């Protein structure tokens, strides 16, 4: 039985994954751990974000502007794990010149907004997501998951301890009597 990657979005065009060529060079790596997270997310929920591509006038090939890791992951799923993949939705981006095309790769890679622990906690709460699925499937470099769990997750070992029972490896961040605001709740 073939495993088919489900396409869960639309684009302006559709291209076979093998016709979408990398354009970022060695700008980013994809570790095995992060490959597995992305692979599992695609296998579990489908392929849900169109790739941004540009047609290179120098060789006529479609080059990735945003979505390099997704195309790389799809390729490994098909070539090494026996998945089949319908053509991928893509959105063409205009080619002005080589330098502008390379800048667009950086535009797609740059993260101008910064995630906060409070924001992640509220997002998870709205969607009834558990910390285990967040840690298993996603990577947020700007969030220390250990610090996040200590501050926001009730069933974290530190949250269940009396003050004198805090494990030695945990540095206390609060003092008795401190007041904190979590959404609409105040904690003392």
Short description:
The chain has 188 residues and is an alpha/beta fold. The protein is built from six helices and nine strands; from the N terminus they run βββαββαββααααββ. It is elongated, with a radius of gyration of 21 Å.
Provide tags for this entry.
single chain, alpha/beta, five-stranded mixed beta sheet
Notes on the structure:
The chain has helices at residues 32-45, 68-81, 98-109, 117-127, 131-137, 145-152, and strands spanning 3-4, 13-15, 20-21, 51-55, 62-66, 83-84, 88-92, 180-182, 185-187. Strand 4 and strand 5 form a beta hairpin. It has a 5-stranded mixed sheet with strand order 2-7-4-5-3. A two-stranded parallel ribbon has the order 1-6. A two-stranded antiparallel sheet has the order 8-9. The longest helix is centred in the first third of the chain and has 14 residues, at 32-45. Helix 1 packs across helix 2 (68-81). It is elongated, with a radius of gyration of 21 Å. The mean pLDDT is 86. It has 188 residues and is of the alpha/beta class.
Number of helices, where a helix is a run of at least 4 consecutive DSSP H or I residues: 6
Q: Using DSSP, what is the number of strands? A: 9
> Overall 3D geometry?
elongated
Classify the beta-strand content into a percent band: 15-25%
Main beta-sheet annotation: 5 strands, mixed
Low-confidence stretches: none
Distance between the termini: 56 Å
- In angstroms, what is the radius of gyration? 21 Å
The helix content, as a percent range, equals 25-40%
Largest beta sheet: strand ordering: 2-7-4-5-3
Summarize model confidence as the mean pLDDT: 86
Which structural class should the secondary elements be placed in? alpha/beta
- H/E element sequence: EEEHEEHEEHHHHEE
